[in-house]
Amino acid sequence: MALLPSLLTALLVFSYGPGASLGCDLPPNHVLLSRENLVLLSRMSRLSPSLCLEDRKDFRFPRATVDGSQRREAQAISVLHELLQQTFNLLLTEHSAAAWNTTLLDQLCGALHRQLGALDTCLVREMGEEGSALAMQGPTLALKRYFQGIRLYLKEKKYSDCAWEVVRVEIMRAFSSTRFLHKRLINKERDLRSP
Length: 195
Hints:
The chain is mainly alpha-helical. The protein has helices spanning 3-15, 30-43, 73-91, 94-99, 102-127, 131-135, 138-156, 161-177, 179-193.
């Protein structure tokens, strides 16, 4: 329960940060935050994945959602935002606080919050008012179903340590799959800034 007050404090601090600028200016450290997420997830491991082989599950990550070659920039931003938001929501549960080191969990939630803030600004700029309707379609809907499957799995496994370990590894895979989209957005941002 100590997670909640420190997380709320972190959210308050981050909401007054530079993420509220106009336009789609992703911070230069956006990709670094993505790497930081992977490092933190890696450090959060409490069990060897080999101890949890019986608990493995194919969550069927919707890879087509992160195939950036066919995505418009607005869709790419929407997909990244949904992945980060769903992960953030999953990590804010009481069950996750019991499963992992709260210091690392707080750091990861803080990094996710910073990225979400930057992507929120981009979503508004790229998608406009119709953005919320668009966000409920196609790729983002597939991600919502994917995370619903993860939540059901955790519930079925009674939020066991092995279940959380399987989910931790799965989230790392999902984050790794989005590298192409991150790079594409950062490169697009650089192209827009160059003369």
